[in-house]
Recover the amino acids of this structure.
């Protein structure tokens, strides 16, 4: 177990060294400095997350379009667009890492498919 913990810390260290992570952190810090902007960005992110990760509904596309319209003011801010893009890249990287681990082990998670 100690070797797994060591290798996990190594993986974390490498993720923190990656361009994807460092770009995300740089932009996150930039957004956080503006408290009002940060609040609006977080509201937008939460609303998107709830739509995208909730049960699939026929009106999801309409809800996302309405959300984009509601938050148009911040979505025209280049820092916000860069941050959201960097966040998506980091999430995709983390998803690939998790998938590779699951796919490389005989760990039965098929019950999640039903």
């Amino acid at each position: 177990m100690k070797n797994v913990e060591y290798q996990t810390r190594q993986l974390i260290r490498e993720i923190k060294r990656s361009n994807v992570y460092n770009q995300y952190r740089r932009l996150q810090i930039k957004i956080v400095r503006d408290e009002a902007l940060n609040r609006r960005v977080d509201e937008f992110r939460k609303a998107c997350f709830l739509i995208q990760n909730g049960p699939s509904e026929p009106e999801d596309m309409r809800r996302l379009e309405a959300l984009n319209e509601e938050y148009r003011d911040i979505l025209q801010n280049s820092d916000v667009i860069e941050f959201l893009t960097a966040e998506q890249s980091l999430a995709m990287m983390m998803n690939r890492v998790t998938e590779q681990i699951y796919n490389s082990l005989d760990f039965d998670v098929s019950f999640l498919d039903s």
Q: What stands out?
A: Residues 101 and 107 are 10 Å apart (CA to CA). The two ends are 32 Å apart (CA to CA). The chain has a mean pLDDT of 94.
